């Protein structure tokens, strides 16, 4: 039925398609920018909330869906082939695919040559057995598969149970520890045993998760009660407008924007220094050596990249203009937002490759800060520019 057997490369294509489809709501701003437009008041926008129709949402998605894809093509060679950034989550995915197809762990391969595997499954298995030994190969593969099935089953069962019994997602363990002498639940202190976040914590590692835990303690254990008792946020704790939940948001935004700006500047400086140091080496090695990671029929030509980038940029400009109008965001400002997004994407890819954290929120906030200076007082234009940068 298939021209080729379903191997690792086909699995990568399938995985890429699934991830791109699943992350489109985030990339197109359906969980951030679009809801923010609908929550605007007449104080924020003269026409009140902006509620897009289904047709407008589709056009907005088409506007922001393509230019980032084409701009990522030249970044691949720099970030993955030349600098060999780790991309921990991508490495974990490669390990999973190698496990499913009984391939050698790609993280311990000595060769960096990537080739289209045309051998049969039996030949691949024999090759791996020669490398690891028959007994070792079977035991390692079986152990990984059992671990995958066990963790998948446990997470699935818990998620299904929590759907019918939602109370297990809000366990007031701090009230239990203090025998209800202090109502921590009223301050939004409870435990949600989410296995998906446990999995993310395993990948992210201790330093990052400790920082998040520290932020939780400072924000919800110190700043939230302080804002309430000082009268800065007298409303209910979980209220975004009058409660401490909305008040500490501005503290977190200030910290994130400052950290993002400084981190991105550091990444930019390191990139420029590295490029200057290795400029001679790149000339000696040449572009041909960097292009040997895949066969020529799997390479994307410069012509396709440039033409695709130009066409996707033009379509973004006119589709955004059609959805929101030139009076909200002029065409030149949309073009500027795309250029800003492209510049920030370079730094975002490096941050993701080095730390496994995608600074999409910080990148969007930096774009919003910039456009607050370009178009002061226009909150809607600010949100649109942030949405383009996040995409």
UniProtKB/TrEMBL annotation:
What is a single cellular component term in the Gene Ontology annotation?
A: fungal-type vacuole membrane
Q: Any transmembrane segments, and where?
A: 12-37, 57-75, 147-167, 187-206, 213-232, 247-269, 300-320, 332-349, 369-389
Specify the domain of life of the species encoding this protein.
Eukaryota
Q: How does it sit in the membrane?
A: Multi-pass membrane protein
- Give the Pfam families listed for this entry: OPT
Tell me which UniProt keywords the record has, alphabetically.
Membrane, Transmembrane, Transmembrane helix, Transport
A GO MF label: oligopeptide transmembrane transporter activity
Where in the cell? Membrane
Do you know which InterPro entries this protein is assigned to? OPT, YSL-like
Q: Which family does it belong to?
A: Belongs to the oligopeptide OPT transporter family.
NCBIfam families found in the cross-reference section: OPT_sfam
Q: What name does UniProt use for this protein? A: Oligopeptide transporter
Its source organism is Rhizopus stolonifer (Rhizopus nigricans)
Lineage in the entry? Eukaryota, Fungi, Fungi incertae sedis, Mucoromycota, Mucoromycotina
């Amino acid at each position: 039925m298939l021209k080729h057997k379903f191997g690792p490369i086909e699995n990568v294509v399938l995985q890429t398609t699934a991830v791109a489809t699943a992350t489109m709501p985030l990339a197109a701003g359906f969980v951030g920018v679009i809801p923010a437009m609908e929550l605007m008041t007449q104080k924020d926008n003269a026409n009140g909330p902006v509620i897009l129709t289904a047709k407008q949402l589709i056009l907005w998605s088409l506007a922001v869906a393509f230019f980032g894809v084409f701009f990522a093509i030249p970044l691949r060679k720099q970030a993955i082939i030349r600098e060999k950034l780790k991309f921990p989550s991508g490495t974990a995915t490669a390990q999973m695919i190698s496990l499913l197809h009984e391939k050698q762990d790609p993280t311990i391969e000595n060769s960096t040559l990537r080739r289209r595997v045309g051998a049969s499954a039996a030949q691949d298995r024999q090759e791996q057995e020669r490398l690891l030994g028959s007994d070792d190969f079977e035991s390692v593969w079986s152990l990984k598969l059992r671990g995958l099935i066990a963790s998948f089953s446990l997470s699935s069962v818990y998620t299904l149970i929590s759907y019918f019994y939602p109370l297990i997602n809000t366990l007031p363990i701090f009230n239990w520890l203090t025998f209800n002498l202090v109502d921590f639940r009223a301050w939004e202190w409870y435990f949600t045993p989410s296995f998906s976040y446990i999995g993310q914590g395993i990948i992210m590692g201790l330093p990052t998760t400790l920082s998040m835990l520290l932020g939780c303690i400072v924000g919800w254990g110190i700043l939230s009660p302080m804002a309430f008792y000082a009268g800065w946020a007298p409303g209910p704790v979980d209220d975004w407008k009058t409660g401490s939940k909305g008040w500490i948001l501005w503290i977190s935004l200030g910290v994130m924007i400052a950290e993002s700006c400084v981190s991105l500047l550091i990444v930019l400086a390191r990139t420029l220094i590295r490029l200057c140091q290795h400029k001679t080496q790149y000339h000696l090695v040449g572009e041909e050596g960097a292009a040997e990671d895949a066969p020529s029929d799997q390479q994307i030509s410069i012509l396709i990249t440039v033409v695709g980038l130009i066409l996707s940029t033009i379509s973004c400009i006119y589709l955004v203009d059609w959805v929101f109008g030139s009076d909200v965001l002029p065409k030149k400002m949309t073009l500027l937002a795309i250029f800003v997004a492209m510049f920030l994407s370079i730094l975002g890819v490096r941050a993701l490759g080095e730390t496994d954290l995608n600074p999409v929120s910080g990148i969007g906030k930096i774009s919003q800060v910039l456009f607050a200076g370009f178009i002061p007082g226009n909150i809607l234009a600010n949100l649109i520019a942030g949405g383009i940068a996040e995409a």
